């Protein structure tokens, strides 16, 4: 049974593709996904190694904090919790910071990153993630708003304390759960001073 549409959301047939700093050029040969911070066994994966671990496939909606949702996206990737456990997190680790090739960052609680549905996605709708959607990899946590699904992922960094990422600096919520409508910190958020690119895509990826 599918989950109902979260409060305040509507289904759209088209993606709005945002990039805070523009699309980076990722060299796949040198790209690595690093697991770092408060871990006893830091390590990194090549794209080929990540693909080999990407055995999870499911269909879930994507929910943007700006209230549009895309219905029934097929996601495929590696369980994020398994990847984090491989690094042996230290007991004081409570937050995960996603770091991306363009300099974008966003934090999520460790418990959300470790949830059963959380993955590092490498495919959408049966195809490698398109460049504008974050190729070669992006985290996907279905119960969090889309800005937490950081595109062009390069590092998963475990932290003891919360730190703001890009959107959190401007008042977006620390956690971002969709069914609790955790869109912003309180009822106000700072006026965004930096331009953010957003374009409509084709109807489906």
TrEMBL record:
This is Sulfite oxidase-like oxidoreductase. Residues 24-167 form the Oxidoreductase molybdopterin-binding domain. PANTHER family: OXIDOREDUCTASE MOLYBDOPTERIN-BINDING DOMAIN-CONTAINING PROTEIN (PTHR43032:SF4), PROTEIN-METHIONINE-SULFOXIDE REDUCTASE (PTHR43032). It comes from the Archaea.
